[in-house]
Amino acid sequence: MARAVEQVAAPQKETDALISGSEAIAVACKLADVDVITAYPIRPYDTVMQYVAKLVANGELDCEYIVAESEHSQFEIVKHACAAGARVFCGSSGVGWMYAFEALTVTPALRIPMVAMVGNRALDDPGAFGVEHNDALAVRDLGWQLVWVDTAQEALDTALIAYRVAEDRRVFLPCAIACDGAFLTHSQAQVKIPPQQWVNAFLPPYNRGDLLLHPDNPITVAPQVNEDWLMEIRKHNDEAMKRAKTVIKEAYADFARIFGRDYGNPFFEEYQTDDADVVLVGMGTLSMPVKVAIRRMRQEGKKVGLVRLRWFRPFAAEELAATLGRFNAVGVIDRDFSFGSPYTSGVLATEIRAALYPAEKRPPVLGFICGLGGREVTVPDVQRMTDVLLSAAAGKAQPLTTWVGIRE
Amino acid sequence: MDAIETALPTQQLEAIKGVKKIPLEEFFTSGHRTCQGCESALVMKLMVKAAGPRTIVLGSTGCMYVANTTYYSTSWVVPWMHTQLGSSGSAGLGTAAALKVLMRKGKMKEEPINVIAFCGDGGGADMGLSAISAALTHPQYNFLILLYDNESYANTDIQLSGLTPYGAHTTFSPPGKAKRILHTRWKKNVAGMLAAGHPECRYVATVCASYAVDMMNRVRKALTIGGPTFIHSIDPCPKGWDFDPMLSHELGELAVETGVWPLYEVENGVLKLYGRTKQIAEKRARRKPVREFLLKQGRFAHFTEDDFDYFQAKVDEMWNRWLIPGVIPFHTELERDQPPA
Ligand SMILES: Cc1ncc(C[n+]2csc(CCOP(=O)(O)OP(=O)(O)O)c2C)c(N)n1
Ligand code: SF4
After folding, report:
1. Which residues contact A235 (CB under 8 A, 6 or more apart)?
2. Which helix (H) or strand (E) is A38 found in, with range?
3. Whose atoms come closest to the Cα of B62: which ligand?
4. Residue B98 to residue A222, Cβ atoms within 8 A
5. Which of B32, B33, B34 to mutate to test the pocket of ligand 2 (most atoms within 8 A of CB)?
6. Interchain contact, B69 vs A224, CB within 8 Å
7. What one-character-per-residue DSSP string does B218-250 give?
8. For residue B304, what are the CA distances in angstroms to B175, B181, B308?
9. Residue nearest to atom 4 of ligand 2 (CA)
10. Which among A12, A34, A141, A36 has a CA at the least distance from the CA of B138?
11. Is the CB of B38 under 6 A from ligand 2?
């Protein structure tokens, strides 16, 4: 385990390590010189804390590492530490994320730029451990930035980018990094670990400025607000979220310049979309089976591509509409479900439909529900979805939402 | 073995010797909207006066939040931040941890800064109890948790809490035709429980702002000793207890004089009764009948003789049969049963 850490010390050159998504984020915490970290066990999130604990125990990460007595406390401890000027990290999964929910709601309202990991997990009951996206999506409307990562490398890079964006004074909003449970959190992959000097060049120290809670700056934070001011405060949050889009673009550009890893469009990745007829859209670790399936289907002459969304909040609605408008049908893969929703679909499908509504060209949008509770999304699943899409593109009516890979 | 990590140095706040020596500066001033005669507001004022300007105060949801920090007006001259109803422990811990690490890493000037997190009885004795208990197990951080106890969820319109006395009329426990007493639970023993259950916590005390100098000195002692510390104050609340605001101080005194609210401190594991409580325990003062305290409050207006007797019997039991009155609720027989050393 120490290998990753030793290699970090090598100057001016990236080093390779075989690490999991969770370990990659723990390494990012070290590189970002995080000051206060809180832990509380729940799978799959707790793996990141096991790596953090080891880094702390080995003296490689100098932070206050606090094992809390609940998720609510975990998030409140770092919220206050961040208000007092500390760079902080914590996270959770599934029901743990929900137990912290009150603390999650106040964090963006207080403009606390914390970074958290949500190791996606289905919600109880039944006590399921596998990945589902409803836990993270629950903060959709709260003012959190929310980004899904696909690989351990992307997890590490995104954590550094998340601090940079969250702590930009134009934003000052927290950021949750969503990692698919097990598929990303527990799977090892080859990761390039950047040298500390590059991170220092990319990520300035956290400066809370005139919002710092300190005797030299005797401000009152979060006074009680009535109807006479609340709307203005909400509007400020909205403006910060809008500005986050610009700051995200700047951060990725700087990242590419300093680290030499260019993610192109920060908001979503496109795969074989140039000449595609239909396209699948999804988030998280779906891209492995989807990309394999696409390569096979291309050999059969089926022109299908993938758009993998990274940033869910802020939502790059205009950019997505411009991209998705090019295709004859759009299939949205949701690893979640919104019961009784207007589109009787998952959350992402509803959002994509909303994003496309003002567009000039509006292809049909079909929802696919699959991979719930950690069920594997298989290549045949993806082929089946594509066939449904292709027949929709050919003008044949298809159900709005299809559950895929389910016992009939 | 590695040395156990220690806390930062604390401010050395000297005891205030007499009312004339109380500092004049106020750090909790105008701008608040508490009721006339609100003793909780007085606790805030005395608490931060005792602590002084190099202090950060954190407050959980309740009257002392809503009535004191309305947007664009604040009564706090020191930095102040709201925390969630169940989070005074976490707020104190997180803030203290940040100060410690930022000073250690040279990201902030090194100096002792007091951190005080307060909570009401609802937030502190009910939903916030687990976070307070957890916070008190971290000896390497300096912060004080002050529970101001007005014996109800006052801000939401006087609902009963885990610290509301037996039988009290609240909006969640009104006397009715079928049940005169809807609230039949006895008040939790929070300070005693926290002192007994947290061996690393070096200071726990109960206070009453009717004895202002004593109260301020307990705050100073807690902050000077450092580590996580806990103080529980009893705060007569004219609205919730239903009495003439003129009587606030008198009711605080009566709570102590009747033995309902024993004053004690546990310093480095040594327990001391102090003030009028000590005099009562040493038989230098008479314990007044609880009736004198209860009869002045509208929330007990529905009490019958039986209720007064029951209340008195419970308080008597605490004084006559407990190992330490108000603190250690084991009966004295247990002591006699112990084998010889
Ligand atoms: C999680 C949560 N539940 C309920 C409330 C509603 N609430 C606001 S203030 C309050 C009363 C708090 O009572 P206490 O802690 O005793 O303080 P007091 O009002 O008596 O000063 C309640 C229940 C809340 N703010 N948060
Ligand atoms: S209700 Fe009680 S605690 Fe609240 S402001 Fe009034 S007197 Fe103070």
Report:
1. none
2. strand A36-39
3. 1
4. no
5. B34
6. yes
7. HHHHHHHH-SEEEEEEE---IIIII--GGGHHH
8. 12, 10, 7
9. B63
10. A36
11. yes
CB of B62 sitting under 6 A from ligand 1: yes
| Helical ranges in A287-378 per DSSP H | 287-299, 317-324, 347-356
Q: A171-191 burial by CB neighbour count: b if 16+ within 10 A, else e?
A: bbbbbbbbbbbbbbbbbebeb
Minimum-distance ligand 2 atom for the alpha carbon of B120: 3
User: Is B95's CB within 8 Å of A36's CB?
Assistant: no
Which among B235, B16, B39, B7 has a CA at the least distance from the CA of B103? B7
Residue A329: which of A351, A348, A303 has the closest Cα?
Answer: A303
Q: Which of A136, A106, A105 is nearest to A121 (CA)?
A: A136
Which residue, among B57, B75, B32, B189, has the nearest Cα to B121 in the 3D structure?
Answer: B189
pLDDT at B203: 98
From edge to edge, which strands make up the β-sheet containing A115-120? A64-67, A36-39, A88-92, A115-120, A175-180, A145-148, A311-313
pLDDT of residue B148: 98
Task: Judge if the beta carbon of residue B258 lies within 6 A of ligand 2.
Answer: no
User: Closest Cα partner for A95 from A65, A67, A132?
Assistant: A132
Q: How many residues does chain B have?
A: 341
The C-alpha atoms of residue B258 and residue A4 are separated, in whole angstroms, by 66
Contact call for residues B79 and A217 (beta carbons, < 8 A): yes
pLDDT tier for residue B1 given thresholds of 50, 70 and 90: very low
Burial (CB < 10 A; 0-12, 13-18, 19+), residue B72, is exposed
Judging contacts by C-beta atoms under 8 Å, the chain B residues touching residue A72 are 84, 86-87, 90, 131
Distance from CA of B46 to the nearest CA of A (A): 18
Q: Which two tokens stand for residue A115?
A: 């970074």
Residue labelled with tokens 């929709």? A392
* Per-residue pLDDT reduced to its tens digit, A90-101: 999 999 999 999
CA distance A92 to A28: 17
The parts of chain A modelled with pLDDT lower than 70 are 1-11
Chain A contact present for B11, CB below 8 A: no
| Residue A288 near residue A315, CB atoms below 8 Å | no
Tell me the chain B residues in contact with residue A224 when contact means C-beta distances shorter than 8 Å: 65-66, 69-71, 82
ipTM: 0.94
Residues of A in contact with B97 (CB under 8 A): 36, 64, 66, 77, 81, 86
Chain A CA closest to residue B113? A215
Alpha-carbon gap: A68 to the closest alpha carbon of chain B (Å) = 7
Give the integer Cα–Cα distance in Å for B258 and B316. 10
- CB-CB neighbours of B73 under 10 Å: 13
Check if A37 contacts B (Cβ < 8 Å).
Answer: no
Nearest to A286 by CA among A351, A375, A355: A375
Element spanning A245, H or E: helix A230-259
Task: Please state the rounded mean pLDDT for residues B46-64.
Answer: 98
Rounded Cα gap, residues A150 and A21, in angstroms: 9
B/e letters for B282-309, b = 16+ CB within 10 Å, e = fewer, are eeeeebbbbbebbebbebbeebeeebbe
Give nearest CA residue, ligand 1 atom 7: B156
Residue in B71, B77, B130 closest to A224 by CB: B71
Contact A223 B82 (CB under 8 A): yes
Task: Determine contact: A84 vs chain B, CB below 8 A.
Answer: yes
- Single pTM value for the model: 0.95
Beginning with the edge strand found earlier in the chain, give each strand of the sheet holding B55-60 in spatial order: A220-221, B80-83, B55-60, B114-120, B143-149, B228-234, B203-208, B264-267, B270-273
Q: Which of B69, B149, B150 to mutate to test the pocket of ligand 2 (most atoms within 8 A of CB)?
A: B150
